[in-house]
TrEMBL record, chain A:
InterPro entries referenced in this protein's UniProt entry, alphabetically: 4Fe4S_Fe-S-bd, 4Fe4S_Fe_S_CS, DsrB, NiRdtase/SiRdtase_haem-b_fer, Nit/Sulf_reduc_fer-like_dom_sf, NO2/SO3_Rdtase_4Fe4S_dom, NO2/SO3_Rdtase_4Fe4S_prot, NO2/SO3_Rdtase_4Fe4S_sf
Organism (species): Thermodesulfobacterium commune
Record flagged with keyword Glycoprotein: no
Protein name, entry field: Dissimilatory-type sulfite reductase subunit beta
Keyword field: 4Fe-4S, Iron, Iron-sulfur, Metal-binding, Oxidoreductase
Length: 418, 432
């Protein structure tokens, strides 16, 4: 059975798929008959190429030969070359089959994916490497997009970790795949090059559940709402557990209530709209509190997070743009700001400085000035530990913001001394 | 197969162009080739979402397979008449392999199965790590599960209030910095806790992630309730000749990660010594020799990453365990916090399993409904979690800084004379 730790490829994979077998084995009358459970995933060892098996734990160093192409050296003298390619993550079995075809042709049938959803092909000699790279470059979708762009290494922009969006989720405020495609098209040059001050990780989450890596990325997008949920009084008591709904609110904005619908008393809830910050968690708990809204919903941009311990500790990303409207199918305003932030960062940061490290050096006031992102009160924290984000020192720089607000008589002085 | 009904999707179609791989072109090509109505209907519904700027999936959906409480995410379209082929469009989470290595014979068989029983659309991979089979109907769930287990020896991943599918970085299979065998650890713990993974028994979800070194390539510190990160406690190994080769410009800093921009010649002082967060390094220009005061090193990996040919982590390796990372809902985002600075681990990892059970036992008993362990630690206090729950002795490494307020709890038994006092006795000394 599958629980065996196969060091060699499990022979089951050499047998063709039988599309009729399950119906023979599964008897709805006796559902527990023939049922196999708790076998876990296949043991990884059987899926690793011979050179990887042989040199497991024996690697001594590596080198990035060119963007997207790595070379690893083992203490045994063996080398392995890796070609990393971008993928859209959302794909079809035909796309996976094409990856398999490439892996069969050049890599002995072995392939792996990275933690950022890039795909990696492994070869052991330069000639095969050359042929593989050439082949990958020439594979395109019918309308011209690259199927397997090579890159994602070093000081560039790798794949965007993202979520389901409108393709499969019920709570998103924005799409995922479409926005990612629009951004990666615009930042494509950075995927296949090493010209940034440090690696720059992008992520997207379509609501503030933040599935994935938004809260700890250099530059990330999160879907937000700006209207309180609708309350379906006639349906709520039938489909929701009211105490669960009340407990789901981070700000205590929901209280139980009774409403009259068609002369009948119904248990429901009321939302204190002044306390609601539109997180949507009550809708996650209760289908009778829909919150999505075409006009209200949009994107917040956060910057400066990281997970690595390199030089500085891991850090959260911070909100710098609180709202950009949804603009399908290409989200031009979002793409424009993302590109602007990358360019300003690229121009000003020192070598090895991640976006957050750079901002910590120059100060947030300088970041807002350099990027031209308008600073608003929306970026000032007002949740629980907000105090820790205030500036309780005389350490600040005079940027244009001070001039504009405090030195211009037409606003500050006039207002204050009238 | 009959003819398929195509929808007009002018907005979605605009995502066919541009250099980045187009999921739209892929899904349409697949739909045409296999005559799959679901592919056209999903793009049709996407177009509607692009017009309305709102999702068209109904709330929730509880489906699954017998014997398990999770692994399948139910989903129904709210436009079932317009897009009948996606009226139900459930997702199957298939547990990825540790390190995400595959052989094509297994992948192709998985594809054959999914062509036959699903939409043909997938995610490689979901953020937690699973292979996502995106879109099938309820009737197909049991046959898919039977195919997976009988014909592919492959199990579902986790969903719901349970242990989710653990994940790791590439580890020793292809990284010289892997300080622990993350793949083996991932696999062993996955197998040890199959019950906790398939049958939700927790107050809320719980995730494991394993990174081989502090660079944390699987983002364990941010995306796992229990984060296992490799580290070492002896000395960084230095090849002085290789260091000199970097200084002479013969080797590319950071393995060539900065190759497309002129950052000037490599300057070891500026790029390594001065950036060391603990300033524990010294480059002796005369001797042409690098010194590291290892007792002051916090193992951030920077110098090693800049000079991979010259510097290697130590050989006395183990794991650090950090606990409590989570996304914002409900009480705000958290990174995992250091609980165990160093632990030696060897298969079958019994000590580690005991540690995990200890945390789970308390959380399962005391965690509130939908309270992540990180929030539980916030609620009861890290000090109580370390001492009373985990039975550990607190050490300075447990905090970034000591507390600044004097609102300190003492237990009655810690205080001389206890808390039972007689006010009459007090008044004898201090008349009112």
């Amino acid at each position: 059975m599958g629980i065996e730790k196969f060091k060699e490829l499990d022979p089951i994979y050499t047998q063709p798929y039988d599309p009729t077998l399950a119906e023979k084995l599964y008897n709805p009358e006796k559902p527990m008959e023939n049922r196999i459970t708790d076998i876990g995933p296949p043991y990884f060892w059987q899926f690793m190429p011979p050179v990887i098996q042989k040199n497991y734990g024996k690697w001594v160093s590596h080198e990035i030969i060119q963007p997207g192409v790595l070379k690893y050296k083992s203490e045994t003298g063996d080398v392995v070359y890796v070609v990393r390619c971008g993928t859209p993550r959302l794909e079809t079995t035909d796309y996976i089959r094409e990856i398999c075809e490439i892996a069969d042709k050049y890599c002995g049938g072995y392939v792996r994916w990275t933690t950022r959803n890039n795909v990696e092909f492994h070869v052991t000699d330069e000639e095969t490497l050359k042929a593989l790279i050439e082949d990958l470059k020439n594979r395109k979708h019918p309308n011209g997009s690259y199927k397997f762009p090579i890159g994602g290494t070093g000081a560039g922009i790798s794949n965007i970790v993202h979520t389901q969006g409108w393709i499969h989720c019920h709570t998103p405020a924005i799409d995922a795949s479409g926005i990612v495609k629009a951004i990666m098209d615009e930042l494509f040059e950075y995927f296949g090059s090493h010209k940034l001050p440090a690696k720059t990780k992008l992520a997207l989450a379509c609501c503030l559940n933040m599935c994935g890596a938004v809260h700890c990325s250099d530059l990330a997008l999160v879907g937000i709402h700006r209207k309180p949920p609708l309350v379906e009084d006639e349906r709520l008591e039938h489909v929701c557990e009211i105490p669960l709904v009340i407990a789901s609110c981070p700000l205590g904005a929901i209280k139980p209530a009774t409403a009259e619908v068609d002369g009948k008393k119904k248990k429901t809830v009321r939302i204190n709209v002044d306390r609601c910050m539109f997180c949507g968690n009550c809708y996650t708990m209760c289908p009778a509190l829909p919150i999505a809204d075409g006009e209200g919903d949009g994107i917040a941009i956060v910057v400066g997070g990281k997970v690595s311990n390199r030089i500085t500790p891991p850090e959260f990303s911070r909100v710098v743009i609180p709202y950009i409207p949804n603009e399908p199918p290409r989200w031009p305003t979002t793409v424009k700001w993302i590109k602007k932030i990358i360019e300003i960062y690229s121009q000003h940061a020192n070598k090895y400085e991640r976006i957050g490290t750079w901002i910590n050096r120059i100060g947030w006031e300088r970041f807002f000035e350099l990027t031209g992102i308008p600073f608003t009160e929306k970026c000032i924290d007002d949740y629980r530990l907000a105090y820790t984000t205030y500036r309780t020192s005389m350490h600040f720089k005079f940027t244009k913001h001070v001039d504009e607000v405090f030195n211009a008589p037409e606003n500050y002085k006039v207002e204050l001394f009238k | 197969m009959g003819e398929v009904k195509k929808h007009d999707t002018p907005k979605v179609d605009q995502l066919k162009t541009g250099p980045w791989p187009s999921f739209v072109d892929d899904i349409y090509s697949y739909g045409e080739k296999h005559k799959k109505q679901a592919c056209f209907d999903i793009m049709g519904q996407m177009e509607l979402s692009y017009t309305n700027r709102e999702t068209h999936w109904k709330h929730g959906g509880i489906v699954g397979v017998f014997g398990y409480g999770g692994g399948v995410i139910g989903r129904y379209s709210d436009q079932q008449e317009k897009f009948p082929a996606i009226w139900a469009f459930h997702t199957i989470r298939v547990h990825h392999t540790a390190g995400k290595w595959y052989h094509t014979s297994a992948l192709k068989k998985l594809c054959d199965m999914w062509d036959s029983r699903g939409s043909g659309i997938v995610n490689f991979h979901g953020s937690t790590g699973d292979i996502i089979l995106l879109g099938t109907v309820t009737d197909q769930l049991e046959p898919i599960f039977f195919d997976l287990t009988h014909q592919l020896h492959w199990d579902l991943g986790g969903s719901g209030s349970n242990l989710r599918s653990p994940a790791c970085c590439v580890g020793k299979s292809r990284c010289e910095w892997a300080l622990i065998d993350v793949q083996e650890l991932d696999y062993e713990l996955t197998m040890a806790f199959q019950d906790e993974l398939h049958r939700p028994a927790f107050p809320y979800k719980f995730k494991f992630k394993f990174s081989g070194c502090p660079l944390d390539c699987v983002a364990a510190v941010a995306r796992a309730d229990m984060s296992f990160i490799g580290t070492w406690r002896d000395e960084i190994r230095i090849d002085q000749e290789a260091v000199r080769a970097y200084v002479r410009g013969e080797l590319k800093p950071n393995a060539g990660a900065f190759s497309d921009r002129d950052w000037g010649p490599f300057d070891i002082k500026k790029e390594v010594i001065d950036l060391c967060p603990t300033k524990c390094m010294y480059w002796d220009e005369n001797e042409q020799k690098l010194y590291i005061n290892n007792s002051e090193c916090n193992r951030c990996m920077h110098c090693i990453a800049v000079m991979p040919e010259a510097l290697r982590p130590g050989q006395d390796t183990g794991i650090a365990i950090l606990i409590g990372a989570k996304a914002p809902i409900l009480e705000g985002a958290q990174l995992s916090t250091l609980i165990v600075p160093f632990m030696k681990v060897e298969p079958p990892y019994d000590e580690l399993k005991d540690f995990i059970y200890k945390a789970w036992d308390y959380w399962m008993e005391n965690g509130k409904n939908r309270e992540r362990i990180g929030e539980l630690i916030q609620r009861i206090g890290l000090n109580k979690f370390i001492t009373e729950v985990m039975g550990l002795t607190p050490i300075p490494q447990h905090v970034r800084v000591p507390r600044d307020n004097p609102y300190i709890f003492w237990k009655e038994e810690e205080v001389e004379g206890g808390w039972t006092r007689d006010v009459a006795e007090f008044r004898k000394r201090h008349p009112a």
